[in-house]
Amino acid sequence: MKEAILPIKNKYGFFEIRLESIGGLGANVAGKIIAEAGVMGMGYNGSNFATYGSEKKGTPVSSYIRYCDDCKHLRINSPVTKPNILGVFHENLAARLPITAGVTSDTIVVINTDKSPQEARDYLRLVGGTVVTVDAIKIAYDEKVVMNTIMIGAITRMMEFMDKDAMINSIKQTFSKKTEFQIESNIRGFNAGYQQVELAHFEEDGKFPYIEFEEMKTKWGYKNAPIGGVIVEPGNSILKNNQSSRQGKIPLFHEGRCIHCGMCEMTCPDYCYKFELKEDEKKQKIQMFNLGLDYQFCKGCLRCVDVCPVEALTEELEIDHEIDKLTVKL
Prior knowledge:
Blueprint: E1 15-22, H1 27-41, E2 45-52, E3 60-68, E4 85-88, E5 108-112, H2 117-124, E6 129-134, H3 136-143, H4 148-158, H5 164-176, H6 183-195, E7 198-202, E8 249-253, H7 263-267, E9 273-280, E10 285-293, H8 303-307, E11 313-317, H9 323-326
Parallel strand pairs: 1-4, 4-5, 5-6
Antiparallel strand pairs: 1-3, 2-3, 6-7, 8-11, 9-10
Helix pairs in contact: 1-4, 1-5, 3-6, 4-6, 5-6
């Protein structure tokens, strides 16, 4: 075991980690694993908790981890505002939420992406810091595991004080409680994430501004909330963007196979498909033709793939395709 002394601490004496994700990618469990590795395996005092809404799957999730090596008790239960390490499980969250708030040139940002560190820095508009990229979705697809252990591996690589075996033991203990058969594959995923990282450091060069962390507050409370069932913003569904709800897979439309039966449209919960009324030259009659879908509204549930009778929709990895070229604007 490594000596239980934290090499880096903030002004309060803590080493802090924040994980930004969506429900279903395992960030909540990842936070517990990372915290337990530090407490049970390294001898630190530590804490972990997560925040998310009532409908957790597919919606934003934040998980917070703190370590302390010289305090008797760690009783702070507030969000991590200036993380030493920021783990980004789903890069599309950056389009909706200020997930990089509090990041400085001293922060290590570990992001699940197929982009290079320079491309990831520009995409996230980071003021600076060390950017670490790992293609966790691709690794998870190959190893047939949830991607959280891959992210844990990459994050552990950036925690020089953390004993790798302590983290592996924490993973084993977590999965042995319910899914013991998954231990071996998750350890493979952890090791792949630990090894398959790219990193680059960026100083605060003025290219992008620093974003201060602010707790999200609703403008409505019990005194001023509107009556239930009232639509206060009519027509707002056109602004909806479900890209950050996808977990790495999309339904790919093969127009040449489509028989235009409409089963996909009937089963789609978000009405992603566009149909056009035009003449069928072979049958010499007017009918509806399926033109494809708009991925802005697609949350990747893949129900349309399940119901398609002719495999005109197939389950594919999103990173293998250019979404903008596949999208039919509604």
